């Protein structure tokens, strides 16, 4: 420590300072103000104020040095003070995208509709929930008490603020999704809506009984309708809630819907598609792609529409509508099924999808000698059909690798079934399975009770299933004049991205189980997860655009979504020097380097950062896009 003096017109002031080094630069801070020379002489009874101040500074320095030595000899280790905390700095990347999505402006519109609601910031509440879901998924109480304190540049929000924000977000969910789509359409790269992908999944709830309004009153029944028993993806006995997700051609979410767990997914497409069509520019055409579970005739007719053609279903815009759906071969009529399974009449593209077509070579010409050569080849053939007035184009495909995968999977199941049959407990079911309540009684043809029952593997059923191994089929109203069969298969092949989105929401963002009970809270919870997924997808695209590589989805074939998410969560800094400095506390990785380069936040890789530099970074990422002008941009 040292003394600094400042001479004035009437007196000289002295103060004691401490020097320290941060980010390679020497800094100093005031430890104690000693006063003027006259005040020091009167207070301490000395005649030389400067000499006393210098001696006081030396004594304080020796005292602190002695205290450190005593702690070292006593074996005391350093303990972090409350002002020296670990902060997640990677959320600055997610926060930059959050603001570019225009959620600030959407929240401003919502609050303008509720002028009597005061006392909290809706934007800050939604941002905390979205960033918290990305950084450390936890409950809303955990977000307000623990997680928000670990975020860099956080604001203090109480739990009731988060629950009030959930209610407002649910009431204006369509507005938020529409504004997010409109603002992200103005980002570099825009939104490719030439193809839209739709699928449904479900989330289990941490309750044992489904929602039922009996005995609870009308008001309670109206607010508790979503948690119902249905077919769970995880095969759980808990009530579930269904979520429908629609993404664009780049896998970025466009819209979502939430329905009771016992709702048929086929009836959920039309209402959501009507909302999405209102988002799109006037006259935009699109191709809807779904799996076979959503390929009902009503959904196909919904998207079988030429430009300007009117339909009974009210859809905004007058663009063309097309569909590409997965067609179950087992569900085809006899003639068309035999055509799809016929081993003749196939073609393939030599050297990949853009290679020269080879005709007349397919499953019938595959042998043990050339099987390895065509293991990665996709064979295909096509034809047109008319099903009750709906003209369609069937594109059948065959993959040897897919056939070998299915047969290996079935062989494993058959082996386990044989062991079960050998034990004689083929009819035993788990206690949670509804079939455990079924009583099976074996009788003879004469009606006598049989005392013995035999079990064996059904070889005939296995042989029947092997007929379909390796075959796949697509149905579309895009005919040969519109695109080739390879393009149809490529469009359908991108459905893996929406399946990956479901996995990210469930595994990485921990959207399940849901502990909310009211419908509004459940919908808002899934909306927060939807916004977090949108942020991550936009981050992924930004990194792919900046770090160009052979794979447009994962730049240079290195950074998958889990890698990027792990880099964001582990990119942390330690708050030190009583809040006046920060030190990085994470291991550098290729994914972290790509993220900092793509979002121009290279300062986070420095050895030390001052508080002013961190504030500059926070202000830099909190830039909102230009507000949309009603009637002009919207």
Short structural description:
With 634 residues, this protein is α+β, with helices and mostly antiparallel strands.
Describe the structure.
- This protein is α+β, with helices and mostly antiparallel strands and 634 residues long.
- Among the domains are: 2-74, no CATH class; 340-477, no CATH class.
- The protein is built from 20 helices and 17 strands.
- It has helices at 37-44, 49-74, 91-100, 103-113, 122-135, 140-150, 159-171, 173-184, 218-223, 269-279, 297-302, 334-341, 400-423, 459-466, 485-493, 496-508, 519-546, 561-570, 590-598, 611-621, and strands spanning 2-7, 12-22, 25-36, 86-88, 195-204, 240-247, 253-260, 286-290, 321-326, 347-349, 357-359, 378-387, 390-399, 471-476, 572-576, 581-584, 609-610.
- An eight-stranded mixed sheet has the order 7-6-5-8-9-14-13-12, with helices on both faces.
- Strand 10 and strand 11 (357-359) form a beta hairpin.
- Helix 1 (37-44) packs across helix 2 and helix 3 (91-100) runs parallel beside helix 20 (611-621).
- The longest helix has 28 residues, at 519-546.
- The chain is elongated.
- The two termini are 62 Å apart.
- Mean pLDDT is 85; it is low at 76-84 and 312-316.
Unreliable stretches (pLDDT < 50, length at least 5) are 76-84, 312-316
Give me the Rg, rounded. Answer: 33 Å
Overall, the morphology is elongated
Question: Strand tally, please?
Answer: 17
Helix share bin: 25-40%
Q: What is the residue-averaged pLDDT?
A: 85
Helical segment count = 20
Strand content: 15-25%
Strand order of the largest sheet: 7-6-5-8-9-14-13-12
Biggest pleated sheet: 8 strands, mixed
Cα end-to-end separation: 62 Å
Structural class: alpha+beta
